Amino acid sequence: MKLLCWNVQWFRGIDGLVDPARVVAHARSLCDFDVLCLQEVAVNYPRLEGGAGHDQSRILEDLLPGFRVFFGSAVDEWSVDGQRQQFGNLIATRLPVVQVQHHPLPYPADPGVRSMPRMCSEVTVRDPLLGPVRVMTTHLEFYSKHQRLAQAKALRALHVQALAHVLGPPESSDDGSPFQTKLHTAHAILCGDFNVETHEPEFAVLVEPGVGQFWDGWSLLNGNAPPAPTFRIHDRTYGPGPITCDFVLVSDSLKPKVRRIAVDAETQLSDHQPLFVEII
Question: Which of 33, 97, 115, 128 is most buried, by the most CB atoms less than 10 A from its CB?
């Protein structure tokens, strides 16, 4: 499986231009991806910097023929003039799809701190080599550490829950109803913009040894070498220097199958850098 993960900042480049087509074209130039995971996809937010007053998820469907596109809105609201607005994550894949789930993440009160709801999109696909894989993408809270920690714990809990279903599946059923048997797999990829660095407690929650542990793809291939920066390389709006806060994590079952991971540090089509991973 070839997967590309990118916080596209509603497809706004450092030059201020909002253009989904050029972002998709650049993603294609980086790799022949089977799965594309994007964060910060907007629907009808014309007041965002650069303007995003269009349905970017629909645009992605047109730009990715042969792919199924699944948009999960963390924010779903109506503007003062009655227009529906959505903001969230998107997974596009050309692999066969088994099921789709969108998980709202915790949003505990943090008085006076700027924040918005967050979620995790999960699409289970069938890879010809790996078999069924749960692909999860998310974007954790930027401003509130309190909320971000709760969200990291929830992501770990979702994986623990999925593993429990593998070991003890529900009663089987072939009645064609919503209760019909579901596919459960231990294979999982969790990727996105976590808004934390590797030394922070939120990251530790995800990679802590034990049931439901995730493994950082970069560290699996590069050991203790510092991870490649993914944020604040070309734009210092949110801080003084480059950091790594975008990751591709894998389940214990996929740990030995990560073959390649790379970060494109050159592109300026977003304030984040895209990550590419190959798992076979």
Answer: 33
What is 49-85 written as a DSSP string? TT-EEEEHHHHHHHHSTT-EEEEEEEEEEE-TTS-EE
Reported as a single tens digit per residue, the pLDDT across 194-218 is: 999 999 999 999 999 999 999 999 9
Task: Give the structural domain span for 87.
Answer: 2-279
For residues 192-217, one letter each, b for 16 or more C-beta atoms within 10 angstroms of the residue's C-beta and e for the rest, the string is bbbbbebebebbebbeeeeebbbbbb
What are the angstrom distances between the C-alpha of 275 and each of 57, 65, 143, 195? 20, 22, 23, 15
How many distinct structural domains can be found in the chain? 1
Question: Phi and psi dihedrals of 268, rounded to 5?
Answer: -120, 30
Look up the CATH number of the domain holding residue 44.
3.60.10.10
Question: How far is the C-alpha of 183 from the C-alpha of 192, rounded, in Å?
Answer: 24
- The pLDDT-based confidence of 189 (bands split at 50, 70, 90) is very high
Quick: pLDDT tens for 109-163. Answer: 999 999 999 999 999 999 999 999 999 999 999 999 999 999 999 999 999 999 9
Kindly report the backbone phi and psi dihedral angles of residue 174, in degrees, each rounded to the nearest multiple of 5, phi listed first.
-125, 30
Which residue carries 């088994």 as its tokens? Answer: 98
CB 36 within 8 A of CB 67: yes
